[in-house]
């Protein structure tokens, strides 16, 4: 009851102050929320920021839910009121441009619970090979829970301290996507709280349109409170390999060859295919490439082409104790068909869980140096395969020069592993690349590492693509006008808009995405 008294006070008083509305008194809402609604300064401050540190929200309160019903009651109140209250779900806060923030509304803090009550823990169905997880569960905890049964999800993100609902609202990609598709291609069922406050179960067989709309739907149609995720037997070990190229064509040709093997038996393909660009020798040992060490037999600096870049192919092969005796032969068979620099093979073996959690260990090092909580003007692009060489020439060997301030990932994926019914937009080619410029802005006096410089460079990159006719699609997209969003979604826009009007007609969910403007009678009738 105390929680709902706080919610009523919030809606009645804070919205009047923030929005400037004169509202009638409201009845006390005895909705029986089991979680905690907080206006504590530390909670509100946390919910006003994200990993990008590029924008700041102004939430009125933060809800720490323990059930879908908690969320539904708050959303239903927002939907039924005329006061302009919005609701945004926030996982681990890893958004870049304020996508999970809100102003004059409530942030649903899906991860990191407070108080004695907690949401349901992951429930593993070992025989059926799936797991039911709370939408705010972090992938690292999903992994730990499923490994107890010798199982694991098939598709991952590189960083595991992200929420399930957060990645499924975008796509969820890593080096396994060429084989298993993105994370959204490995979901059997969802529970979703719509923008009307309804709790709906959806799947291929039930509420099918909502199911596909929510997957990759940027939080526009509902808040994911439960996901049923496909599992497979978990390997014990991983052979992790990196090889270098000075020739971009050879690099991408080998990458595309490796992902073309997706239908082959497991002993005739790698389980993970990624890559990255090295335009700055000083970044060889950054948080994404600490794999290289002074003990390596080749000095990487001697491989740098004049005025060019190096390209690193990153591949991995999973194995068990029962297949350990054949792993060397399997890897050798696959490597001998590739055209990398022969003296540049770097190999290590490690536990499967350590491989999946590799970025977190580097995060801890950066945190200890004060280099994690800095602005991150990241730019993630899907590039058609037919244009990737032109992108290399204009961006990697052109606009970026020989200085950058973070990793640059590049790897191809198979479009036929993506369900076209989802809300995600990808290039219209059978193979497309992710290019992710994961850069950090530092206030260290270096112009090329400043936030202004990196933002300007991002705009240069997008302008170059537009002028060169490279039809990129942004992953983790961010736009400021609806016309830009319409251009982004292309022929999916009409359906996207239709689903929005059906499941969130007042546009109260995920307003931080800036796709739709909330609509409330009291706002439309305000005096000018």
Automatic annotation (TrEMBL):
It comes from the Eukaryota. Residues 1-22 form the signal peptide. GO terms for molecular function: cytokinin dehydrogenase activity; FAD binding. GO terms for biological process: cytokinin metabolic process. The keyword Glycosyltransferase does not apply. Gene3D superfamilies: 3.30.465.10, FAD-linked oxidases, C-terminal domain (3.40.462.10), Uridine Diphospho-n-acetylenolpyruvylglucosamine Reductase, domain 2 (3.30.43.10). Its EC number is 1.5.99.12. Its cofactor is FAD. This is cytokinin dehydrogenase.
């Amino acid at each position: 009851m105390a929680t709902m008294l706080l919610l009523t006070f919030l809606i009645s008083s804070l919205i009047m102050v923030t929005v400037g509305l004169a509202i009638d008194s409201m009845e006390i809402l005895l909705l029986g929320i089991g979680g905690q609604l907080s206006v504590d300064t530390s909670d509100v401050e946390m919910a006003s920021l994200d990993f990008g540190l590029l924008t700041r929200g102004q939430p009125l309160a933060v809800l720490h839910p323990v059930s879908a019903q908690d969320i539904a009651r708050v959303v239903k109140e927002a939907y039924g009121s005329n006061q302009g209250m919005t609701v945004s779900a926030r996982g681990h806060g890893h958004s870049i441009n304020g996508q999970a923030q809100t102003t004059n509304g409530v942030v649903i803090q899906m991860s990191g619970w407070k108080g004695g009550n907690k949401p349901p823990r992951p429930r593993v169905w070992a025989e059926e090979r799936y797991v039911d997880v709370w939408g705010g569960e972090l992938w690292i905890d999903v992994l730990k829970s499923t490994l107890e049964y010798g199982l694991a999800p098939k598709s991952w993100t590189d960083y595991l301290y992200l929420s399930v609902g957060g990645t499924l609202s975008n796509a969820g990609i890593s080096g396994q996507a060429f084989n298993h598709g993105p994370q959204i291609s490995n979901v059997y069922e969802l529970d979703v709280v719509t923008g009307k406050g309804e709790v709906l179960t959806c799947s291929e067989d039930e509420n099918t349109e909502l199911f596909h709309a929510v997957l990759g739907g940027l939080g526009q149609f509902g808040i994911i409170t439960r996901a049923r995720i496909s599992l497979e037997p978990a390997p014990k070990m991983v052979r992790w390999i990196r090889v270098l190229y000075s020739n971009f064509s050879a690099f991408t040709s080998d990458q595309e060859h490796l992902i073309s093997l997706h239908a082959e038996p497991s002993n005739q393909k790698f389980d993970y295919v990624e890559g990255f660009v090295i335009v700055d020798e000083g970044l060889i040992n950054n948080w994404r490439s600490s794999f290289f060490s002074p003990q390596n037999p080749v000095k990487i600096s001697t491989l740098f082409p004049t005025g060019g870049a190096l390209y690193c192919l990153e591949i991995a092969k999973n194995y068990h104790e029962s297949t350990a005796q054949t792993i060397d032969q399997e890897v050798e068979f696959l490597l001998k068909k590739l055209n990398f620099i022969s003296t540049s093979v770097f190999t290590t073996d490690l536990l499967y869980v350590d491989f999946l959690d590799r970025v977190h260990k580097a995060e801890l090092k950066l945190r200890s140096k004060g280099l994690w909580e800095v602005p991150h003007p990241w730019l993630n692009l899907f590039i058609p395969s037919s244009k990737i060489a032109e992108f290399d020439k204009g961006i990697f060997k052109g606009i970026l020069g020989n200085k950058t301030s973070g990793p640059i990932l590049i790897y191809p994926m198979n479009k036929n592993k993506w369900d076209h019914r989802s809300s995600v937009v990808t290039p219209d080619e059978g193979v497309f690349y992710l290019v992710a410029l994961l850069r950090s802005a530092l206030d260290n006096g270096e112009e090329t590492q400043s936030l202004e410089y990196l933002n300007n460079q991002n705009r240069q990159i997008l302008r170059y693509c537009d002028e060169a006719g490279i039809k990129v699609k942004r992953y983790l997209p961010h736009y400021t006008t609806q016309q830009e969003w319409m251009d982004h979604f292309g022929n999916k826009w009409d359906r996207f808009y239709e689903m929005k009007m059906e499941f969130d007609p007042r546009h109260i969910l995920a307003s931080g995405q800036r796709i739709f403007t909330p609509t409330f009678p009291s706002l439309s009738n305000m005096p000018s």
